[in-house]
Amino acid sequence: MAILRILSALVWTVVFLVVLLFALKNADPVTVRFYFEQKWRAPLMLVVLAAFAAGAVFGMLACIPAFVRRHREIAGLKKELRLRPSVNAGAERPGLPGDAPPRM
């Protein structure tokens, strides 16, 4: 288990360093043009990060209807399970093959 944590930390460190070096190499300012002659000047890496963040937010928003539908279905199934009468309610424990018959 410890080796897996060390390996995970090593992988995240490498990913962080690669992204950091990418950001340092792409620090040149770029102009992002919007409608109505609006412009935004920022470093390329900031523009890439903003686009990634916007994509992640829109992706999560797109998943919300499925999560809500699944939550409603689970709640309905739990309610149905609570309302269903128990099959063995009031029944005694059935005898098992190795059990001795009750004495009278």
Please provide a written account of the structure.
The chain has 104 residues and is mostly helical. It is built from 2 helices and 2 strands. It has helices at residues 2-25, 44-83, and strands at 29-33, 39-43. Strands 1-2 form a two-stranded antiparallel ribbon. A hairpin with a 5-residue loop joins strand 1 and strand 2 (39-43). It is elongated and about 90 Å long. It starts with a helix and ends in a 21-residue tail after the last helix. The model has no long low-confidence stretch (mean pLDDT 82).
In short:
This protein is mainly alpha-helical and 104 residues long. Helices cover 62% and strands 10% of the residues. β1 and β2 form a beta hairpin.
Give me the secondary-structure category: mainly alpha
Strand content: 5-15%
Taking all Cα atoms into account, the compactness measure Rg is 30 Å
Number of strands: 2
Major sheet strand order = 1-2
Helicity range of the residues? 55-70%
Tag the structure with descriptive keywords:
104 residues; mainly alpha; two-stranded antiparallel ribbon; 2 helices
Write the layout of secondary structure elements.
Layout lengths: L1 H24 L3 E5 L5 E5 H40 L21
Antiparallel strand pairs: 1-2
